[in-house]
Amino acid sequence: MSQPIVTRSSMDRIRHTVMFEVFLVMILAPLMSVMLDRGVVELGALAIVLSLKAMLINLLYNYGFDHWDVKQGRIPTQRKLVGRIIHAAGLELVLTATSLPLIIWWLGLTIWQALLMDVVMIAAVMLYTLLFNWVYDRLFPVPQTQPATC
To answer: Concatenated DSSP letters for 64-121?
Structure first.
């Protein structure tokens, strides 16, 4: 009989989400300021609002994705590269769909300007997501219960 797969605790998920967003805001706010030639305070405020929204989505998305992995018989912290790419791409699609209207309104951009900006950000954030989660899983693995040996 196989042992159940252990997933991340609620506190671990909160730590993951907060760390992910703090590091991302620290990287993106200054980059967006330079790219858009706007004040870092204005873009920092937008980044924080987007970050708070993303934290909630990230928490729910990762919880759901981990459960999907478990249903497939996979240990979430041991995802292969393909699984990590699917995870990162799916998260970015959800975040884009929920962020574009806010970005358009906040920055007064057209949908095409916002989409172009978002394509650049999506590429950067997807790479960041892939690397962050891979490193996080190595730094904070979830120990699996081992069956007793006779």
So the answer is: HHHHHHHHTT--GGG--HHHHHHHHHHHHHHHHHHHHHHHHHHHT--HHHHHHHHHHH
The first and second tokens of residue 120, run together, are 């650049």
pLDDT at 1: 45
Backbone angles phi, psi at 109, to 5 degrees: -95, 160
Q: List the one residue out of 11, 130, 40 whose CA is nearest residue 82.
A: 130
Q: What is the pTM of this model?
A: 0.67
Beta carbons within 8 Å of 20's beta carbon, 6+ residues apart:
55, 58, 129, 132, 136
Mean pLDDT in order along the chain per 10 residues (150 residues): 77 89 88 88 89 87 88 83 88 89 93 87 85 93 69
Count Cβ atoms within 10 A of the Cβ of residue 62 and give its class: 0-12 exposed, 13-18 middle, 19 or more buried.
Answer: buried
pLDDT reported for residue 149: 53
Q: Which residue has the tokens 């790219």?
A: 35
Reduced to 3 states, what is the DSSP secondary structure of residue 149?
coil
pLDDT for residue 147: 59
Distance CA 137, CA 76 (A): 9
